Amino acid sequence: DQQVKQNSPSLSVQEGRISILNCDYTNSMFDYFLWYKKYPAEGPTFLISISSIKDKNEDGRFTVFLNKSAKHLSLHIVPSQPGDSAVYFCAATGDSGGAQKLVFGQGTRLTINP
Amino acid sequence: DTGVSQNPRHKITKRGQNVTFRCDPISEHNRLYWYRQTLGQGPEFLTYFQNEAQLEKSRLLSDRFSAERPKGSFSTLEIQRTEQGDSAMYLCASSRLAGGGFTDTQYFGPGTRLTVL
Asked: In whole angstroms, what is the distance from residue A59 CA to residue B36 CA?
């Protein structure tokens, strides 16, 4: 069963506009969420995270929103830049006292058009 | 900070052969993870070490897979009698135990791409 889902395989956005990537989860035990960016032939790079005790976390151009009741989170990138073109993975964990293994979504390929 | 490194970056082998991958975590990171990623999917958890102790293994890790982390530093992942279904990207991540109920951030290496012919 897919506990973390990214339902949009791809997204195309014009440079300078806002990119919104979405993620849904089913496991109510998840209490920490992360977004990673991945370029081809590289490992995932950590972008931003949010704890379940918050509903928003901001870092520069990146903001993550968490809606616990809907079991939904989103990543907003504004303004979008060509270098943001990559695959974005949402990940979740719910084991703060243990292994903290990450459960990933399938990824969304973001393309920023000039 | 040199980041997480993995070797080799690419490995092509014939079915039935054994392969071994190495991961060097960020220094002073006491947690080390192995994940596997297949085409079109996100990474899937395989196993986890805290220092030299292997504390959790996924059901994905069959008997043909073994991982070690001697002395709590680098780690190796060995696959015996490789099968075509083992073809994937093998990712290593490390983190520093935050403690206090906080979640640490995992930092990933570039991965080893395995192709089994």
From this structure: 29
Contact: A36, B108; criterion CB under 8 Å: yes
Cα separation, B73 vs A68, in Å, equals 38
Q: Which residues in chain B are closer than 8 Å to A102, comparing Cβ atoms?
A: 33, 35, 43, 45, 106
- What are the DSSP E strand ranges found in chain B? 5-7, 10-13, 19-24, 31-37, 44-50, 53-57, 65-68, 75-79, 88-95, 107-108, 112-116
Question: Chain centroid to CA A14: how far?
Answer: 19
Q: Is the CB of A102 less than 8 angstroms away from the CB of B35? A: yes
Backbone φ, ψ for residue A54 (5° rounding) = -115, 165
Q: Rounded to an integer, what distance in angstroms lies between the CA atom of residue B16 and that of residue B80?
A: 7
Nearest-CA residue of chain A relative to B106? A46
Q: Is A14 helix (H, G, I), strand (E, B) or coil?
A: strand
- Distance CA(A19)–CA(A84), nearest Å, equals 10
Q: Write the pLDDT tens digit of every residue in A13-54.
A: 999 999 999 999 999 999 999 999 999 888 999 999 999 999
